[in-house]
Amino acid sequence: MDIKVDHISKAYGEQQVLQDLSCVFPEGKTTCIRGRSGCGKTTLIRLLLRLDVPDKGKIEGVGDRKLSAVFQEDRLCENLSAASNIRLVCTETITDRELEEAYKAVALTEIWQKPVRELSGGMRRRVSILRALLAESDCVIMDEPLRGLDEKTRAKTIDYILKKTEGKTLIFVTHEEKEAVWLKADRTVDILTKH
């Protein structure tokens, strides 16, 4: 089932963030959300994840889905290892070998038993990405997941994102045109104005 955003509006106090926005995220396809800072991209993600509710309008098609997400903040458990952070969201047992393959796929090596607090920002981003990709889900929502990664690492990580989201609905927020191209996005939602 497609996810349908139908004439939603959202304000925080006096600040109108989204105004009468409608769009569709097709089932099993990749959609990129683009727009300048402050236009409401993260607010839309929060609404899709049901962390917030629209003031007006409705969102259909997310109710029974298994969702996983990468937020702008890493939201990792600081004192746990990378492996433990990933295992927290995996309903089935994931083997050390599977984890090792995932780390290699995104250019992370020899970090999986270190506490997350000891990892660099780019390493933490990739642990967050792996956690979302390895969790059981049929829809993966990513809010600027590649922020802070160098171009070579971004390209490698995108390859793994494409592999792990094949056949799933992928909603991907980005500022960068080339990321949408690398992702071979089926469609783009441009949030054009800040209200």
TrEMBL record:
Pfam families named in the record: ABC_tran
Top-level lineage group: Bacteria
Record bears the keyword Iron-sulfur: no
Alphabetized SMART domains for the sequence: AAA (SM00382)
Enzyme class name: hydrolase
InterPro entries: AAA+_ATPase, ABC_SmlMolc_Importer, ABC_transporter-like_ATP-bd, ABC_transporter-like_CS, P-loop_NTPase
Residue ranges constituting the ABC transporter domain according to the UniProt record: 3-193
EC number(s) from the headed UniProt entry: 3.6.3.32
GO MF annotation terms: ATP binding; ATP hydrolysis activity
Keywords: ATP-binding, Hydrolase, Nucleotide-binding, Transport
PANTHER family the record matches: BICARBONATE TRANSPORT ATP-BINDING PROTEIN CMPC, SPERMIDINE/PUTRESCINE IMPORT ATP-BINDING PROTEIN POTA
Protein name: Carnitine transport ATP-binding protein OpuCA
Species per Swiss-Prot/TrEMBL record: Blautia wexlerae
Lineage per the UniProt record: Bacteria, Bacillati, Bacillota, Clostridia, Lachnospirales
